[in-house]
């Protein structure tokens, strides 16, 4: 018997045990349990091919789940056709209708909903003013720049006041500067409208800056769903740690566990203490992850429980900071971030420098290469 | 004034650039020249001569030069002056000798039947042997009283110019009345207007059938995975692998009363009399649609291939029913390809010859059939050229209307 699902006022969409296969041989979405809260900005983040678009398409109704159920406001969505779902969508190529003006594009969903002519005009102008394009209502999409087309697509997805808007890599075709600008603009629109947004991207920076929560996908499974801060500071496995932000890895074998910490022996016999996240038994192999900015150098490292000697390999200059590539404990591409002000002028390539970090800052995760 | 910019070697930049571009232009011309020459010889020259032939009218002027010259001054009332009769006598004598009379009499015979024998008979009586005091006119009328009939002189007068709208008029079921104004020929003599009408009508239907059958196929192909659509595209192009003649022959085998389709249907007991499928309009339509279908499918397919599926998805996500979304969003975007295909098919239909000739009844023949008839059977270049020219003009006019409606810059052949 299927357990009765109690409609939760906070939850807008829930995926329960959803699976999807296109060819009957492999599962693109392996097992999806996901609650999307009302009003939140949720990002599906993952490498391309990890099934993000497929999830979005199932939610929009263009693909049917092979198994499992999707509910919107507690009502089963599986057999509701896509045009009855009232979900706004922004496509990567914008999909603005080329034979209609911007105004006609925006009026399209309103005409279908039988609004009066004056209502339509008012809503269209309101939506255009939201994306600051009031003056372009009579242009055709081909006469707009990429950024303007993006805004029109956004306005069109919002103009009929859907409670849920899906965006599939909507900024993928824009250049970096415009993309960052639009990220902020979308974020502000989300804040002011209170609409629920499900956003798909493979760009982790985008995901971290925009989202309330991020779901990290890999091979059709959500690896971690959390706030941007937790994803960065407390990744639950090696994939998340390496996919989000920069990170240094060290391989080793767990010796003992105690109070949430573990003793790990590295390949060359050196031992260190790390926060036990995935390491659950002595003798297991583990990949440990530490962020470059958590590594301390020279004097600052004296208080640390884990201390090493690293051989300086390369200076990489970034303007506000310098990255030092070092050979540490058998990892020849160990990166340490140093603010320019803390740089020691006497360092040169080939020097041996002492460094260290606290056990809470290095996380013992699942082995990357088991 | 700024001094002209110069390159590093002191030469003016403009001059250097011009020389560079001259070389490029020369290369472009050299690449295009062979085709240009080929088109000039095989396309422009024949079409020009076709247009010329349709108004060319040399026979009477050549055979009867003096008569032609004098009769132009005739006021067209009563009979021409004696001088014209004398000139005719002189011309006939010479024409008989140098053999140009046959063409002229054939030409005049088109105007009034019996003119050939009149001319031959009169020419035999040349040179004139006038009795004393007898006028030339009376003598002619004595040879044949038709020389006293103004109509016969009007016929010469009409052809006293080396060009004439006669063939074009006839191709439109018109004729010049006595005052030179075109009028419709009597109903029982009309033929060509209905042939032109039939040609347009049949072309229209073939085009409509091609679009109705081709559009869904193109849509299906455009939405299949690439491997399958490539394979099926070969099947679509299969008709191009054999000659039109062979395909028409195959259709005859299939469609005739004892053909495969009829005997199959009768064996299954679906019909008990053979259906008349060949040697009538049905057969012509079936074979022409089959031959011309790829010309609708290919441009439609290539346009559909370029339309991302996200457009229709977007329309559906905005709340539109999938059918409405298809009609309002997808279909308008395929128009350039479909319109180009339709235009192609229609224009090819207008000139179709072999299929109606082999698979149709006399009632299903199109303009091209009569062009071939006048070229091969009666050797009447004037009529053949006039029909061909009118077909060309009609095609161009239709094209102009069409491009006004659809916009040729929006057509896409893929
Ligand atoms: N319509 C489809 N038919 C068959 N396979 C598909 C289809 N759509 C996506 N796939 C496959 O599913 C996998 C995941 O695709 P997708 O959901 O688009 O991933 P993402 O959006 O994360 O890049 C890919 O390997 C892709 O080839
Ligand atoms: Mg995708």
From TrEMBL, chain A:
Function description: Part of the ABC transporter complex PotABCD involved in spermidine/putrescine import. Responsible for energy coupling to the transport system.
GO molecular function: ABC-type polyamine transporter activity; ATP binding; ATP hydrolysis activity
GO cellular component, one term: ATP-binding cassette (ABC) transporter complex
Stored InterPro entries: AAA+_ATPase (IPR003593), ABC_SmlMolc_Importer (IPR050093), ABC_transporter-like_ATP-bd (IPR003439), ABC_transporter-like_CS (IPR017871), Mo/tungstate-bd_C_term_dom (IPR008995), P-loop_NTPase (IPR027417), PotA-like (IPR005893), Transp-assoc_OB_typ2 (IPR013611)
EC number: 7.6.2.11
UniProt cross-references to NCBIfam families, sorted A to Z: potA (TIGR01187)
Organism: Pseudogulbenkiania subflava DSM 22618
Stretches assigned to the ABC transporter domain: 13-244
Reaction equation(s) it catalyzes: ATP + H2O + polyamine-[polyamine-binding protein]Side 1 = ADP + phosphate + polyamineSide 2 + [polyamine-binding protein]Side 1
Gene3D superfamilies referenced in this protein's UniProt entry, alphabetically: 2.40.50.100, P-loop containing nucleotide triphosphate hydrolases
Tree of life domain: Bacteria
Family: Belongs to the ABC transporter superfamily. Spermidine/putrescine importer (TC 3.A.1.11.1) family.
Keywords: ATP-binding, Cell membrane, Membrane, Nucleotide-binding, Translocase, Transport
Quaternary assembly: The complex is composed of two ATP-binding proteins (PotA), two transmembrane proteins (PotB and PotC) and a solute-binding protein (PotD).
Identification of the protein by name: Spermidine/putrescine import ATP-binding protein PotA
Automatic annotation (TrEMBL), chain B:
One Gene Ontology term from the biological process aspect of the record: transmembrane transport
Pfam families: BPD_transp_1
Name of the protein: Putative spermidine/putrescine transport system permease protein
A Gene Ontology term for the protein's cellular component: plasma membrane
Domain of life of the source: Bacteria
Residue ranges of every copy of the ABC transmembrane type-1 domain listed in the record: 196-402
InterPro entries associated with the record: MetI-like (IPR000515), MetI-like_sf (IPR035906)
Main location: membrane
Leader sequence segment: none
Transmembrane stretches, start-end: 28-52, 202-222, 234-254, 284-304, 338-359, 379-402
PROSITE patterns documented for this protein: ABC_TM1
């Amino acid at each position: 018997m299927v357990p009765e699902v109690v409609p939760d006022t906070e939850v807008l969409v829930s995926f329960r045990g959803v699976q999807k296969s296109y060819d009957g041989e492999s599962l693109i979405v392996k097992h999806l349990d996901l609650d999307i809260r009302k009003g939140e900005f949720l990002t599906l983040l993952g490498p391309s091919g990890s099934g993000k678009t497929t999830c979005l398409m199932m939610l929009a109704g263009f693909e049917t789940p092979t198994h499992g159920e999707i509910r919107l406001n507690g009502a089963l969505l599986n057999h509701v056709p896509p045009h009855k779902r009232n979900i706004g969508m922004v496509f990567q190529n914008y999909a603005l209708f080329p034979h209609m003006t911007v105004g006609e594009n925006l009026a399209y969903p309103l005409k279908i909903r039988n609004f009066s002519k004056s209502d339509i005009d008012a809503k269209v102008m309101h939506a255009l003013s939201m994306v600051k394009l009031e003056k372009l209502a009579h242009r055709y999409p081909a006469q707009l720049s990429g950024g303007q087309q993006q805004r029109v697509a956004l306005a069109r997805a919002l103009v009929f006041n859907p409670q849920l808007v899906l965006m599939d890599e909507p900024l993928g075709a824009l250049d970096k500067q415009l993309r960052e600008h639009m990220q902020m603009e979308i974020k502000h629109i989300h804040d002011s409208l209170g609409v629920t947004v499900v956003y798909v991207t493979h760009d982790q920076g985008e995901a971290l800056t925009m989202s309330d929560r991020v779901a990290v996908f890999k091979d059709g499974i959500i690896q971690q769903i959390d706030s941007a801060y937790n994803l960065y500071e407390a990744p639950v496995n090696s994939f998340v740690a390496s996919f989000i932000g920069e990170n240094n890895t060290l391989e080793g074998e767990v010796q003992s566990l105690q109070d949430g910490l573990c003793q790990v022996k590295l390949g060359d016999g050196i031992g260190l203490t790390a926060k036990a996240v995935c390491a659950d038994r002595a003798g297991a192999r583990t990949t440990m992850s530490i962020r470059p900015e958590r590594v301390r150098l020279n004097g600052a490292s004296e208080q640390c429980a884990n201390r090493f000697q690293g051989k300086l390999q390369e200076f990489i200059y970034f303007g506000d900071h310098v990255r030092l590539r070092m050979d540490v404990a058998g990892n020849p591409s160990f990166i340490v971030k140093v603010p320019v002000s803390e740089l020691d002028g006497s360092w040169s390539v080939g020097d041996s420098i002492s460094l260290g970090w606290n056990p809470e800052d290095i996380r013992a995760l699942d082995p990357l290469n088991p | 004034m700024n001094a002209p910019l110069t390159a590093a070697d002191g030469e003016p930049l403009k001059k250097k650039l011009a020389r560079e571009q001259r070389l490029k232009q020369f290369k472009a011309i050299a690449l295009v020249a062979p085709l240009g020459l080929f088109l000039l010889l095989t396309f422009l020259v024949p079409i020009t001569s076709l247009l010329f032939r349709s108004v060319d009218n040399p026979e009477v002027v050549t055979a009867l030069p003096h008569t032609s010259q004098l009769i132009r001054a005739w006021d067209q009332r009563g009979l021409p002056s004696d001088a014209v009769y004398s000139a005719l006598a002189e011309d006939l004598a010479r024409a008989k000798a140098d053999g140009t009379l046959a063409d002229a009499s054939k030409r005049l015979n088109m105007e009034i039947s019996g003119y050939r024998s009149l001319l031959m008979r009169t020419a035999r009586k040349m040179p004139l042997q006038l009795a004393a005091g007898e006028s030339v006119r009376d003598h002619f009328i004595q040879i044949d009283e038709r020389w006293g009939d103004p109509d016969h002189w009007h016929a010469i007068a009409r052809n006293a110019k080396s060009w004439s709208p006669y063939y074009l008029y006839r191709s439109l079921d018109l004729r010049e009345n006595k005052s030179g104004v075109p009028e419709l020929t009597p109903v029982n003599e009309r033929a060509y207007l209905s042939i032109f009408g039939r040609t347009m009508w049949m072309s229209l239907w073939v085009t409509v059938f091609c679009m109705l059958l081709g559009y869904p196929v193109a849509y299906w192909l455009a939405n299949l995975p690439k491997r399958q659509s490539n394979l099926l595209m070969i099947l679509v192009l299969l008709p191009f692998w054999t000659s039109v003649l062979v395909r028409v022959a195959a259709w005859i085998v299939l469609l005739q009363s004892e053909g495969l389709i009829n005997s199959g249907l009768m064996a299954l007991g679906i019909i008990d009399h053979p259906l008349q499928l060949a040697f009538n309009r049905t057969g012509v339509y079936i074979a022409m649609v089959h031959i011309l279908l790829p010309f609708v499918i290919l441009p439609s397919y290539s346009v559909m291939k370029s339309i991302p599926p996200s457009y229709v998805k977007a329309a559906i996500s905005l709340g539109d029913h999938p059918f409405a979304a298809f009609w309002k969003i997808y279909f308008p975007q395929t128009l350039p390809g479909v319109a180009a295909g339709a235009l192609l098919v229609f224009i090819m239909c207008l000139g179709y010859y072999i299929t109606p000739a082999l698979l149709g009844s006399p009632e299903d023949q199109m303009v091209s059939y009569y062009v071939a008839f006048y070229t091969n059977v009666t050797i009447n270049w004037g009529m053949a050229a006039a029909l061909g020219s009118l077909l060309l003009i009609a095609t161009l006019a239709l094209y102009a209307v069409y491009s006004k409606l659809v916009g040729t810059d929006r057509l896409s052949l893929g």
